[in-house]
Amino acid sequence: MLTQVIRTPHGRPSPSQQARDRIFFRNGAQAFQYTYHILPTLYGDSMLLYLHGPETETSDLRNLDMDTRTLACFTDALKRHSGMIYLTGLPGHGHTATCYAALQHVQTPDAKVIVLEHSVGPPVSGLTHVPLRSEIGQTYAAALREVLLHHPDVFALEEPPDRETASQALHASAAGRLALSTLYAADTVACISALLQMGLSSLLVSRTLTLVVAQYRLRRICTQCKTSTPPSDTVLKSFPSIETARIPSTWYFGAGCEQCGMTGFHDHVMVYEALPIDATLRQAILEENVGETLRRKAALTGCISLLDAGLEKVADGATTMDELLHTVPLTAVRGTG
Fold first, then answer.
1. Where are the domains of the chain?
2. What is the structure's pLDDT at 18?
3. What CATH code would you report for 70-211+274-296?
């Protein structure tokens, strides 16, 4: 049942207003929300809908399909009272849900937790949501300064648009505040490289960064029509950088059935790459030894790459090799920084 439609004041939303258009509806006791974006085209408008499920679905990190190592790294970083945690990967892979789950993990009656957002999604109990007021010319850096004046114990922000905002967040995380942020990059190492390419001080980044987590959402093979298949030479030839020994000997796919609408997929599975920043990695960041150098050092710390995490899902029959290789960016698959 449709209960409320929120529209921007001037009819069709401008690009900066699109994310504010929301539709709320209820299904029994559960509340849902659509966030929709409208893109004007030559022959009409194209609409993209995001369905936000009930709050309970993402209120616990254990509900996010994290592997044991990633969950342990995440919870350890959240126990600290300062430092910066970055969530990375490409847009549309559940970073907001992960951020909200992390914030709820640290939320207590005595903790002040503030979220600065371009547009506020479904409100989460216990969190203070602050929308960016771009319609009055407010910049992200100015909005973050206002947030920090309220002395939050924990704060979170979406993709920092410039060096000023990112630097301000890192400085705040060094002053006894736990911070979380998204930053879109291919993988964990690419995220660190992006921070340095913004012009941020390598000293500041190395001192404040505690954890980087990359995540991607892959389509899950339908369990009703799943069948096995030998590895495809055609697919493998497209990615010659992958060592043969790392490739599962049996692949799986969905043949298509009524359960999955003949797509071969039903639901999703997540792959993560968690990179805790230890003393060795801090020194590498300080010296700006990023890219392949940092990637090799990360592997020595036990970091499981996105590719290896995905290959494990392929071996378990959770997703297809083709889905993995065409969802995770080539930079992450090939291991370039």
1. 2-53, 70-211+274-296
2. 41
3. 3.40.50.300
